Amino acid sequence: MKVWAVLIVLFLTACNLQSQGKERHDSGPVKNCETGGSSGIAWHLLKDKNCNRLSDYRLFQDANNPLENPSGPGIAYQLATELFSDYAHKHRFLYVPEGSVEYDGVDVFQLPVGSVIAKTFVLPVSNKSEYARDIVETRLLIHRENGWIGLPYVWNENRTDAFLVVTGERIAKYISIDGVGVGFEYEIPTAADCKTCHISRTSDSSKIVPIGLKARHLNIEVSYEGRKLNQLFLWEGAGLLSGLPYARSEIAGIPVWEDETRSLEDRAKGYLDINCSHCHTPGGSGSESGMFLEYWRDALYFDHGICKRPGGYNGGQKGLVFDIVPGNADQSLIPYRMGLLASEGEGKGQMPPIARHLNHKEGIRLISDWINSMPARDCL
Q1: Which structural domain, as residue segments, surrounds residue 137?
Q2: Degrees (nearest 5) of the Cα angle 194, 141, 51?
Q3: How far apart are CA 208 and CA 39, in angstroms?
Q4: Is residue 227, in this structure, part of any structural domain at all?
Q5: Domain endpoint, select from 208, 234, 255
Q6: Which residue ranges of the chain lie beneath pLDDT 50?
Q7: CA atoms of 258 and 271, how far apart (whole Å)
Q8: Which residue from 212, 192, 219 is spatially nearest to 92, judged by alpha carbons?
Q9: Could you give the CA distance from residue 376 to residue 334 in angstroms, rounded to a whole number?
C-alpha cells in the first residue's frame, strides 16, 4: 500500500507541475506562422520559419495526433535499436519534399534540402509496458539551405498542439520501474543542445547531422499493409531511396538489443552504437576521448575501449582506470558511467551526458554481462 500511495502523490505532483509548465508555451514569445488556406505540408514555412506551433507545419493529417498518419509524402520508420531516453517510446517520420535519400553503407544517409525528421516521445506507465500514451514532446530536424536545424516542441496539457521551447524545459514525471514508482524530471533539450549529440566536425568546419538514418539501423523488417518487408527495400520501391545494393547481404545491420537469439557481443555493440557512437566517433563531440564505438569496429581493440584510459575523467568515486576491463564489469568505466546521474550530483561522469534522468537498468546489465563474458585480461 505504501508504494501505491507514493505513486499517487508523485502522479498528482507531476500533473500539477506539468500543467503549470504547459501554460507558458501557449503564449510563447515566438509569433505564430501564417499558414494560409492551402492544405498539405507547409513546405514554405519549413524552409526558413521557426513556427511557435507544431501544427503550423501541417506534418500530420490530424494535428492532435503525432503518432500516425503523416501528411504526404511523410513515411513512418523504425530503428533496430533505439537510443535510450528515460524509457520513452518514439514515433519517427521522414518527409522528403522531392528527390530521394542517397544510400550510404556506413555513414548517415544524405537527405535533400527541405527534408524533415519528426520524432515524438511518449512515456509509458512502466518500463515493462508495451504501450505509451503520455505524449510529451516532438523534435524536428529540418534540412535547410544552410544546414540542419533542431526544433523541440512540447505538447500542452490537453494534447491539442505542441509549442516551440528553444530554451528547453524540465517536466516532473513518474514511471514504475520494476514495480517501484520513481519520480524524475523529464528534460526537453534546448535548440542548442541538439548540437551536443548531432554535431559532426572536420578540420575546418562543423555541422549538425541526423543520427539514426544509417543503413545498419534501418535494415530491419517492418509491417506494411499487412505484410512484412525489409524497410530499406520498401523505401527503394517507393522511390524514396536511391543507390541501395541489390544484394541484401551487402547491407550492414545490427541486432535488436533484446534479441537473445543473437550473440551477446553483437547485441552489446549494437546498443553502444545507437546510444554512444554519434559522439564517440571521429568528429563527434566525444572524439577527444579516443574511444570510438561504431558497430563495425573490432570490439577487442583499444579504440573500442579495451584497457583504454579515459580522456578528461578521473575515474569517479570508485577511482576506475579503464573504459573496459575484459572479464570485469565492476572495474570498467562504461557500465559505471551509464549508472551515474547528474540529478544525483554526478553530472561530470554521466553518460550519455544530457537528456537522461533515469538509468537504463536493462542496458547496464547487457553491457556488464558482455564485459564479464570476455576472456579476463589484466590491463595494468
Answers
A1: 2-208
A2: 100
A3: 30
A4: no
A5: 208
A6: 1-30
A7: 9
A8: 212
A9: 17
